[in-house]
Structures are given as structure tokens and as C-alpha cells.
């Protein structure tokens, strides 16, 4: 629904465009005496000089049937306009509708179709204090008199009452005709291209360059870079203040289509969207299978409303990230996190065995409050994401220590290792701290105090231990979603890009499923158990042994 609505918004953008026609040379004698000559190579016009020194430019149209003539008859006003517009496209100028006269029944009986440079803009009175800005403001109006005037006849026809062929300005050359408004249109194909590119976070500049390569040249695109940008602007204007409402309406339609689609939202007293949670049928099904360990990452800034995007993520049978549900929150508060966690439990029907979050005081309160043993559910264990903590080391300790010495390499030996016990970790941590003289660092002391919440050595014997080491998972998921969103997105833009991200994630799962089902790994032993393992496990799991 959102896609269809947004593509409709640019139907009125620009003028309709015809194919560029071949132009041959020719000279009209419809002006006062003076020599005629081609103005420059590739020109579609010639000019004559009046006795007063004024130059008049005469279109040169190779197709004589496209040239208007007095008393020419048209079946309708639209056909008359279309004929003159086509003449302008071939001749190097743009046509616009102008003065009209109506009868007592409000029917048009006289209509002027003029060159777009007819008339003059309002004369600047010099009141603008910014001289540079006023000087750089250009006008295309120059009082051009070229036009046709059509008049209604009693036979429900229109005939050409008068035709002024000459212009008082140079006409567009063959290379310049692509920039005429009459020759520019954001066609459905171009709008679809721009819209599809936007869904995968490709901007207007790259979209325009890609269109040029597809069409074989800029002149074949049928639009300019400014037209591409204007389309993006028009889409945002169309969405306007209905951004949140359009997203909720989309969710309502999705729920009507699939009863398994779950969503919830909350608004402030002014009706502004403050919180939004959703989980589709595939995400809920994936949680049933892979939902023992869930990572909740609330570190994404998503849109112009400063809402926080936070996905609930797990690891599937191919050791790839899989998204169970997502939410948008206005604040990193206990209230907002509790609201999101509550709807997650309601949508999924149970608590995860383990939930992994970043280090946040609000989550420290919200997680045990919601993922508890209430209503007979098994309470979740709470652990901190190692990746987010490691990301803070250069910030808290400085780039010089972390990147120009072997401090991080030595520290990671004890942080990452799953083969050491608690005592060995504590001895190793203390040795590294002493070596680099960091005994007085408060942040490191704080991290050591909560070591049981993020160091693998403290939960190596727990079930699903392998999934708790989420360093690479969190980094992968963070990088994955970063490809599909940027700050300043509207909610509609965010949703379209989120769908693209989910399509990519789930298509990769389908590819890996096919690879597992359609191939047999080579066994290197004579043991039957290896053959059984090859049949039972996915390739990612099998190759770990």
C-alpha cells in the first residue's frame, strides 16, 4: 500500500515527453528583411535581423507536417495543445497554456498556447538586501511572442486563428533539448527505479548515474538529476505529517492479511507515535525454533523523529542472525523497555532462556522485571553483549593504548577464550592490568566488578553457551541494518528499507537451506557417525566438527 501510494505522487511532475525527432535545416521568411544563417553547429534554429537590430529566431523543423498553420483544424483543445507541444519539442522550446476565453456556458472558445518564455517576471524593486542572492536569481521570461491561438467552431472543432512562428531568444540546440521541461518526465520506470534504489539506501546521485548506464547516455534518461531529487522531495511532502499514521494503517492491513502478524503502538496526548512493536509470522515461527537466546540491540538511530530502532535477534541453524521482532522507542527508559519486552513476551508466548543486551541502567531494571517467572514462565537470564563493551575500550582508554600497543590483543586472550576457567581469567586480567599500569582506571574496575555478566568464562557450563558469545553476531547484525537505514529517514522510508533487509536475510536462509538439502559434504573418515552427522546437521554446523 505504501509503495503504490508513493509511486502515484509524481504523476503530475513535469510534462509528458515525446521521443526526440530528427531535425533538418531550413529557413523561414516570416520576419522582416535580414540575412539568415545557422547560429551554430547542431542548432535547430536560424535567425534574422530586424531593421532595428533585434534578432528573431526561427525554428527549423524537418517534418513539415508538424508545423502549425493558420486555419488548421483540431478535434479537441487537448489535441491542439499536444500538436503544438510536439512542434516545440522538435524545435527546441517548451510550450505552456496561457490566456483563454469562455462563453456563457463556461466552455472555452478561445485559447492561447505560448512559448514558455512569454511574458516577464515581476520587476525587482531592489528591496532585497542580499545583492548576491538577487543577482544569482535567474528568469527565463523574456517577452517571447511565439504562440498559436485556437478558436472554437460551431462544429465542435478548434481551428488555428493565428500562428506566430518567430522567437526573440535562441532555441535549444540538439544537445540541450534533453533539459527542456517538455522533454523531461519521471516516467513510471524511472520512478520505480528511484523508489527501488531508495529501499536499499541508494541515493539520488547514484540512482541517476545508474539510469544513465541503463539508458546508454544522459540524453536518453528523459530526466535530470534535479528531477530525481524533486521526486524524493515530493515523496516526503506526500507523506508529510501522516508518516506515523501511514505506518499504522500498513500494519492494520498486514494483520488483516495474516492473523499471525502482531503489532502494538503507543501515542502521546498530541497523537504523536512514541512506541511501536511488531513481529510477523516468520519471526514468531523462528523464535519457536531458535529463541532460546535473544540479543536485544537498542543502539540504532533511525529517523528524523529520533526514534530508537531495536531488533530482537537470534542465531539460526546456519549460524546466521535471524530477526524475531523489532521495535521503535522514543526513550531509552525503563518504561519504554518494559513496554517493548512485555509485548515481545506476549507475541512469542514465552521468555527466552537468555537475553543479551548492551550495558544500560534502564535495561538492568526492565529485563528482570518483565522476563521473570510471572504467569508460570521460566525467568530469563540476563547477560551483557561483549561486542558493545569492547567497542568502548578505545573510547574509555584512548586510541593510543588500544590501537598502538598490544594491550587489546593480550586482553582478548582472556576475554574471548572459552577454554579457561574463572580463576585463570582473573589471573590473566590482573596481569594485563599491571603490565600496562591501569590499576587506577575506574572504568576497567567497573567492568571487572560486573565480569560475571559478560565474560564467557563465567557461563561456559551453561546450556547454549556457544550462542552467548555474541561478539561477531552483534557486529554482523549492526553492520547489516546499517546498510538499510540512515538518520533523517521518515517512518515510511524506514519501513520500506526494513522490509528490504528482511527480504535479504530470509533469502539468504533459503539459499543455505537449498545448499544443505541439495549437496552432500565429503566425509574423510570411515565412521558411519560422520555420514549421519552430514545428513543431520547443516553445512555450517557440520564443518565445525
What does this structure look like?
31% of the residues are buried. 41% of the residues lie in helices and 16% in strands. About 6% of the residues have low confidence. It is elongated and about 100 Å long. With 545 residues, the protein is of the alpha+beta class. The protein folds into three domains: 67 residues, no CATH class; 143 residues, no CATH class; 260 residues, no CATH class. The chain is built from 20 helices and 16 strands. The strands form three sheets. Strands 9, 10, 11, 12, 13, 14, 15 and 16 form an eight-stranded mixed beta sheet that branches. This is Protein FAR1-RELATED SEQUENCE. InterPro entries: FAR1_DNA_bnd_dom, MULE_transposase_dom. It comes from Heracleum sosnowskyi.
